[in-house]
Amino acid sequence: xxxxxxxxxxxxxxxxxxxxxxxxxxxxxxxxxxxxxxxxxxxxxxxxxxxxxxxxxxxxxxxxxxxxxxxxxxxxxxxxxxxxxxx
Length: 87
Known about the structure:
Oligomer: single chain
Shape: globular
């Protein structure tokens, strides 16, 4: 279900597959917690656009991504605005 609901990957991920792997691992780690990639609180599962994928980032990697213009911590919030705008 995580794979089906996953939005576009942030630019700091090498590709869609690495993003999906991260999300699946994060959902398993969340173990039902509402801070995981899926919001399961309201009947039908939805993607949790409040997920802070930067929590697991290292300082070194963040610096590298900043140098390449690929560090976008607000990526999911921007996608959520686009989704909300369409609805």
